Amino acid sequence: MEKNILVLFGGCSPEHDISKKSVQTVLNALNGNTIIPVYITREGKWLMYDGKTDNVASINWEKFGTPAILSPDRVNRGLLRIVSGKAKIVPVDVVFPVLHGPNGEDGTIQGLCELANIPYVGCGVAASAVAMDKALMKLVVKGLKIPQAEFLTFGADEFMTDEETVLKKIRYKLGYPCFVKPSVGGSTIGISKASNKKELSAAIATALKFCGRIVVEKAVEGREIEVGVLGAGIAAKASVPGEVRSANDFYDFEAKYENAESQTVVPADLPEEIVEKVQAYALEIFRAIGGSGLSRVDFFVDADGKIIFNELNTLPGFTAISMYSMMWEASGVPREKLMEILIGIALAKHND
Question: H helices within the chain, ranges in order?
């Protein structure tokens, strides 16, 4: 049955532009539904599309101009379209957030949908918040006893108060090279590799521009393997794995979105026992945070076949080069069917 699907994209996040690339793929795959696209500007203004959406391929991206607000009112629920100072309710059956990073993937939009009592695609508030925070996610995985890189985490205040002690602690516990990451963020934004004390100090300063808490990891050598998860609870399934082959020293933002020499291989060429184990780990981690809908779980596989957890992304990209939909397509689930399943999971979760 046709649904009114509110598609949110853009957002107040360093990953704003990635969201704008992802949304076109999602819109093109949401067949048989009434689509309500709403663009959230970098400043946080919500703008509804003023044109017809019966042909999403021909959407004029300049026509987002009518202010709109998702009402938290459970009785008069829906999108408030504001024209000449008057609000008109546009009914919404499901929200599909195509928002990456903070203020969209971290439980904030999910919390608004919960207040409004409207079904939404993807993980819930707690799962989204935990997965968005690398330090918290590492504590979850540590409890599962799944291998991951050694790490340290600290706040901006600790670094600013005694930089020398923090740098010394990293050197003795992790050594060089190491990776410095903002605890909250995605698309490899703000992440740097440090091979000495000077680079480490500069990398921390860069990461602090994006988050007040930092995670530093011991560098891991291995193939970069990703797995898509779809579903909820014991019914969740794992896709065939894919492999990222970065053109740069590591799969940073430039290698991911701007360097044509970077490659993605789906399915990854791995022994069957490694495939089964990486899928099992992905499902175990997804279920541990109470995941629902979709996630992409990233690992390294070293030369000895050891699997090392890297991170979990609750709203993975849907750009033309993004791995999540590619892995599911290789698993026998085309994009249109994938969207249908995600909408169905959102409705079922809400009904439960």
Answer: 16-29, 108-116, 125-132, 134-144, 156-161, 163-173, 197-207, 253-257, 272-288, 323-330, 335-351
To which residue do tokens 């703000």 refer? 190
- pLDDT band per the 50, 70, 90 thresholds, residue 239: very high
Of the two residues 102 and 216, the one the predictor is more confident about is 216
CA dist 57 and 23 (Å) reads: 11
Mean pLDDT, residues 242-252:
67
3-state SS record for 108-152: HHHHHHHHHCCCECCCCHHHHHHHHEHHHHHHHHHHHCCCECCEE
* In contact, 180 and 123? CB cutoff 8 Å: no
pLDDT band at 15 (very low <50, low <70, confident <90, very high): confident
Task: Please state, in angstroms and rounded to a whole number, the distance separating the CA atoms of residues 241 and 299.
Answer: 10
User: How much is the average pLDDT of 301-326?
Assistant: 93
Q: What is the dihedral of CA 60, 61, 67, 69, to 10 degrees?
A: 110
Q: How many CB atoms lie within 10 A of CB 199?
A: 16
**Tell me, what's the pLDDT at 32?**
80
Taking the mean position of all CA atoms in its chain, how far away is CA 334?
20
Report the chain's terminal Cα–Cα distance, integer Å. 19
Which two structure tokens, joined as six digits, stand for 64? 């987002």
Please say whether the beta carbons of 7 and 20 come within 8 A. no
- Residue 85 makes CB contacts below 8 A (sequence gap 6+) with none
The residue ranking higher by pLDDT, 130 or 250, is 130
pLDDT in tens, 295-309: 999 999 999 999 999
Exposure string (b/e) for 17-53, b if CB count within 10 Å is 16 or more? ebbbbbbbbbbebbeebbbbbbbbeeeeebbbbeeeb
**How many residues comprise the chain?**
352
Among 26-40, 45-59, 79-93, the least confident range = 45-59
The three-class DSSP label of residue 274 is helix
- Cis status of the peptide bond prior to 37, with omega within 30 of 0: no
Whole-Å CA distances, 58 to 54, 122, 163: 9, 27, 53
